[in-house]
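Worked example 3 (structure in, sequence out).
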């Protein structure tokens, strides 16, 4: 069974973040899956992983209804409007529970979103009050404008993390680790504009991509006969997106790639792929002790037991150092981030210290800080761990982290939380994405909404890393070798730095010079926090 999401705080005192109504990830560009970002003229990867929505209408000034102008007049949004749907779902969710939907109207859904935003959005007082609900044809279109329009000093949107996701897909990813696609993670040229360069960064074992023999570093050139590199007309883009990110399992598509300059073609059929968040757990013997290594890709419910098993292996082997490879980890459950930080550092470094304090808007009471959790939460998943299970610890005073721009949100919280407890974090690779914000995902009428609710700070009160964490040694991601290979650029640099305390120069020669970014939906770049003390179910 999955932990219950607690949205309506008034209707449900529990505020948990997982699925079966609930919550988990953080996102930055993992290719594959219904609602995943696609290719387009601008941007080539969509900003929000949702179904197409009605274009946002121009705000109507001075003609809004009282509900639009003053959301406080809406009253109890949770008791009055939550689960009142224009098209109620019938049947049962993945956990076997009947959908809570009752017959309502589109206006009920819009009122719910407006009142919730007014109460819980971090920058609620910056949301324009000039929009008229009658101008909106969908709840998603209305939600899209319920955010601050402010920009930063550099001209970027202040809120770049406002998005939605189909609830059923969100829950499948969270509790079962299921993603719809080919099991391939792509990197693209920054911005993704034509001419496009898309390279495979990872292939999930047992996936359609693995069965087709695809490997890290393969470059995509054509899809179903269409020139993927240069195509820009709407019809071609639509066909490319349909093939790259299938909406249903079972559709087959032809992909032309090249490896070492030699083209080859494969046919892959989209499928529901179970993604293992923890991989490549190994012990590396060195002249100065044993080094533990693991690849960790997402803080979802499935990862809880896998992390515990990995650290049990490390502890039994007597490792004295750890290389944590989170180069593609977009984030997820903050309670798992705190558990991971505790397993690295142990009770001596963390006793009496805060892993992260969430800072909400001025309408909400200060919540208890998130500690370095020493026991398992017991998230519902396909292979859960018992709630309260003591966590294995390594008691390390330093840890080496492999990072890229795909290292985001809850992953950055691990770095920030450990540094707040005076654990040395050596960072090899690239600057992280810079996302100190988090959500409590809100499901309503089949859509889960993600709207920034808090900013996280560590035990020292630091949380201003919107420009990301810069690496100790800057090393390009090496796509010429498998992740976990000791000769792969980032891992090789980490081992060299450990031995010499100096950043190697030669490792960057093999790495790609063109700036690349991970292709993945925003739902894989988030931080999610439940209410402390809320028992999982």
């Amino acid at each position: 069974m999955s932990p219950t999401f607690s949205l309506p705080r008034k209707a449900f005192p529990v505020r948990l973040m997982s699925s079966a109504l609930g919550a988990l990830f953080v996102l930055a560009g993992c290719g594959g899956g219904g609602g995943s970002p696609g290719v387009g003229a601008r941007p080539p990867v969509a900003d929000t992983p949702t179904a197409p929505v009605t274009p946002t209408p121009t705000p109507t000034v001075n003609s809004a209804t009282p509900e639009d102008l003053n959301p406080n007049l809406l009253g109890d949004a949770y008791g009055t409007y939550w689960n009142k749907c224009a098209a109620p779902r019938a049947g049962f969710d993945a956990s076997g529970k009947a959908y809570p939907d009752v017959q309502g109207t589109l206006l009920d859904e819009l009122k719910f979103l407006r009142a919730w935003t007014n109460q819980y959005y971090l920058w609620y007082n910056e949301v324009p009050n000039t929009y008229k609900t009658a101008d909106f044809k969908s709840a998603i279109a209305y939600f899209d404008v319920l955010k601050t329009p402010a920009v930063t000093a550099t001209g970027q949107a202040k809120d770049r993390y406002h998005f939605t996701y189909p609830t059923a897909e969100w829950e499948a990813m969270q509790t079962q680790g299921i993603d719809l696609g080919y099991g391939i993670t792509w990197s693209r040229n920054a911005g993704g504009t034509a001419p496009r360069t898309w390279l495979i960064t990872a292939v999930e074992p047992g996936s359609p991509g693995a069965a087709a023999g695809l490997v890290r570093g393969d470059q995509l050139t054509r899809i179903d006969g269409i020139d993927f590199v240069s195509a820009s007309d709407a019809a071609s883009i639509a066909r490319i997106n349909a093939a790259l990110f299938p909406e249903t399992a079972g559709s087959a598509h032809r992909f032309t790639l090249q490896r070492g300059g030699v083209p080859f073609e494969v046919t892959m059929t989209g499928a529901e792929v179970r993604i293992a968040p923890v991989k490549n757990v190994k012990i590396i013997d060195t002249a100065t002790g044993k080094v533990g290594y693991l690849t960790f890709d997402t803080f979802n419910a499935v990862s809880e037991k896998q992390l515990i098993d990995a650290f049990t292996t490390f502890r039994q082997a007597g490792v004295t150092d750890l290389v944590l490879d989170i180069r593609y980890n977009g984030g997820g459950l903050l309670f798992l981030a705190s558990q991971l930080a505790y397993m690295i550092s142990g009770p001596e470094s963390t006793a009496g210290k805060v892993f992260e304090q969430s800072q909400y808007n001025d309408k909400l009471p200060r919540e208890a800080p998130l500690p370095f959790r020493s026991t398992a939460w017991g998230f519902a998943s396909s292979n859960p761990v018992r709630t309260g299970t003591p966590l294995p610890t390594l008691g390390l005073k330093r840890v080496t982290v492999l990072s890229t721009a795909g290292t985001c949100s809850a992953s950055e919280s691990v770095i920030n939380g450990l540094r707040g407890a005076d654990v040395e974090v050596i960072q090899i690779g690239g600057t992280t994405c810079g996302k100190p914000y988090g959500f409590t995902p809100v499901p309503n009428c089949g859509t889960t909404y993600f709207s920034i609710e808090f900013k996280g700070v560590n035990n020292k009160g630091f949380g201003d890393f919107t420009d990301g964490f810069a690496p100790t040694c800057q090393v390009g991601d090496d796509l010429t070798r498998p992740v976990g290979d000791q000769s792969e650029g980032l891992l090789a640099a980490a081992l060299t730095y450990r031995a010499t305390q100096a950043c190697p120069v030669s490792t960057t020669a093999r790495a790609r010079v063109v700036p690349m970014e991970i292709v993945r939906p925003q739902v894989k770049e988030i931080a999610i926090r439940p209410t402390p003390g809320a028992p999982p179910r």
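Notes: Residues 106-120 form the longest helix (15 residues). The longest strand covers residues 278-286.
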